[in-house]
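CORE FACILITY INTAKE
Project code: CF-77B
Contact: R.S. (postdoc)
Sample description: multi-component assembly, two entities in total
Requested service: structural model of the whole complex
Turnaround: standard
Below are the sequence entries exactly as provided by the requester. Do not edit them.
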Amino acid sequence: MKKLLDRVEAVVDDMLDGLAWSFPDYLRRIPQTRVMTRARPKDLGKVGIVSGGGSGHEPAHSGYVGFGMLDAAVAGEVFTSPTPDQILEGIRVADRGAGVLLIIKNYTGDVMNFEIAKDMASAEGILTEAVIVNDDVAVEDSLFTTGRRGIAGTILVHKIAGALAEDGCDLTTVSRGANTAIQNLRSMGFALAPCTPPAAGQPSFTLAENEMEMGIGIHGEPGTRRQPVQPARDLADYVLSRIVEDLQLKAGDSVACLINGMGATPLMELAILAKDVSMWLQNANIPCNFALMGEYMTSLEMAGASVTLLRLRDDLERWLKAPCDTPAMRQGVMHER
Amino acid sequence: MNAEQFMRWWICFGQEVHAHLDDLNELDRAIGDGDHGTNMDRGLSKVRELWSLPKTPVENLLELSKTTGMTLLSTVGGASGALWGSAMVQASQKLPVQGTCTTETQIAWLDAIVASMENRGKARIGDKTMIDVLRVGVDILIKGDPPSFSERLNTVASSAREWSEATRSLIAKRGRAAYLGERSQGHVDPGSFSAALWWECLNRAMGE
């Protein structure tokens, strides 16, 4: 294992300190916790937004703490859900008197730990709601299983919920908006090379020179099937076909699109994938009104990408395009930090 | 069960998980993300520290169970932390604050631990999880055949690794391995293996 680090058991703490130092206008680490919160708290009377999960997905989630997105991000160990006591700290700091929305990625550990924290917060009298993101079409959805995973599309839910909260909507409205986004959100990812969690010291799976994994999650776990490497346009065709079929998108439906790098994919290759995605959507007569391309939800140094589509229902486009100012995502008007 | 046995049991569990750290990670690497051993070891080393030099009055079984649970809840993370931690906290209410507990109470408490996990994790026998080892074991203890508790516990402890091994042929329905579908077949569930170590240590602690 070749990694830039000091102590393998302290990677998360060291990273959080480094992030807080690098973005002092945006981020503050609550001492003795793994909670990153806004350097300049949101106005009183607005709904707080909290997310989090295992580390290793940077810039998720602390990169999205700031105006128009999150109020607190809770970091767990690498690829491991944070613990309820830490999530509770995040809820407490995010509560500005109008309640808190938790945005949870659908992984067994995340859901359980956030639910325990939600119960603890409710017991303290903090109004708390939760939404669960499950955008990954690679996994079959069924009542008898854990259901679909939450992956890169989560960023778009942060954006939409954050904009609604910043606009002064109440908790029910923010939560409903987030759920509308989730219902219209689908993603799928693939890996060209695995990643190595620091504590494990070895890759989570191995691939031959000509092999790739289709349908990966974001924790370095293997995908749903192994296949020979294909040209970017064939990969775009495969994942978009799956997503469009699942969403039952029709010609004329407009979408937002996120082309997300998994950590070790050159931006040049992501841009090539973006070109293929744009041509595919154009041929299918599905207009894309909002696009993001870059590293938004990574999996350490995994090589690969995911594609996310969000069908633009109701006011989703307006909330996506609303201003935000965070370390990892900035758009629209400048505001005082 | 007395407080001394409780502490010996959990110290043993921590030592066994530590000794099998690489095995547990390796099992998890095949069908998860390779950190089951690391996560359990992080929490259980705290528990070992606590019960090697106990600060809590040592005769209070309720407090022992609750503190063990709170410690796991705040240190393990992931699904294992939530399941083991909240189960030990919830089930602690079945235990007395003073003195030893009867075999009946101990069985009811063990049943409550597993029921809490089933409830939170929504897993049943056959889903390729820790429940495949825990529920089968508790049911043998509840059924009362053979009549001697220590004989039943012996059976559970000596069969636990076989039950864990039997998860190999199953397709995972819960937990992260469930995302692999049929590709989860052919691998032992790591949570079922650590659960087997837990039974073995209980048997050892009760026999001393």
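Facility notes:
- DSSP finds nine helices and no strands in chain B.
- The interface with chain A takes residues 25, 29, 31-35, 38-39, 42, 73-83, 86, 120-121, 173-176, 178-181, 183 of chain B (CB under 8 Å).
Invoice: internal transfer
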